[in-house]
Amino acid sequence: MYNLTEQDKQWVNEVWDKIDKKMCIVAEKNKHKIPYTVDENGDFDDCATGKFPYDISWWTNGFWPGYMWLLYNGTKKNVYREAAENAEELLDKAFLEYDHLHHDVGFMWHISAGVNYRLTGNEKSKLRALYAADFLAARFNIAGNYIRSWNADSDTDGYNKVIIDSMMNIPLLYWASEVHNDTRYKKMAMAHADTIMRTHIREDGTSHHIVELSPETGEVYKALGGQGYELGSTWTRGQAWAIYGFVLSYIHTGEEKYLMTAKKVANAFIACASQSDFIIPLDFRQPEEPKIYDTTAAACAACGLIEISKYCSEFDKKNYFDAAVKILKRIDDGAADYTTDNDNLLNYGSEAYYPGRGEAGLNTAIIYGDYYYTEAIYKLKGFKELFW
Ligand code: GLY
Questions:
Q1: pTM of the predicted model, to two decimals?
Q2: What is the dihedral of CA 354, 359, 363, 368, to 10 degrees?
Q3: Residue 227: CB within 6 Å of ligand 1?
Q4: Which domains are present in the chain?
């Protein structure tokens, strides 16, 4: 990793302290919940008691406990650990609603139970994460060489939808291979990553969100615009999933092709981001108006860029690292709320560009924005444990 200047070190320390000061209070208030967003009063909602789809099987339910573990590991304050452990127990119910689960079991259990096990050695947590890994492995299509993202009700014309987000789920399989001392999980993860490289990453380093694949051969049926602006545009969170996901595949396997892919996607991201002064929109090719931002994409991309910077030549190191710091400073300046007036840390996260949905899910609070921003600052503070 590139070294921070003295001034930036001070900035990082201040941001970390502001997050901790706020979140001590917010964690105590919400320690029996699994939040996703906030209500009109700025209070966290609760997916543990929420209604479908924002219920116990909602794909983001690992981020709150993961966020709490980041803060616990960085401060050793018990309130964070308590909130993380409570959420992990609540999540057990999702295992029983088996038919509501999907490939996002990586997001749900790798940074909740998986991190608990890796930090504390909790055996029950290890089992939870291994159950999740087995569930994910069982979704592998051996003829097509991919992990099925969603369930049968999402298929079109008999083709399975496979999404770029999956790159963040497969670290659970790399971990399971190590724990079981069994390369099956890793081989499935690598076969999937190879397919995504072939089917989702475009020549110019931008990416498709959704590609429909044949379950018989793995051949591409067609690409879809998904949560981005339109077919062929550049959904920024998809780019972020790919940047961080491919560098993680490199870290876990040592395969250069994954690092090269992470850099290729990162280069496209940085080129586009530099056009908007590193303030990240929902889609790099969306119209000027309305202004829709996505701090979740920004923060996740920053995490990936920081990791890439650890595996580069001196020149490239600075390039990726500086881009990450610029992105984080834009969030700090314009989107972070360090007060306790609202439970969320970041504003201006956006779910998707779905015309007809009005303002819903746009420029708002989303838990994984808070998670990735905190993870990025945690990395810059010099904490070493990799959560993925
Ligand atoms: N994984 C779904 C999303 O990024 O919105």
A1: 0.98
A2: -60
A3: yes
A4: 6-380 (1.50.10.10)
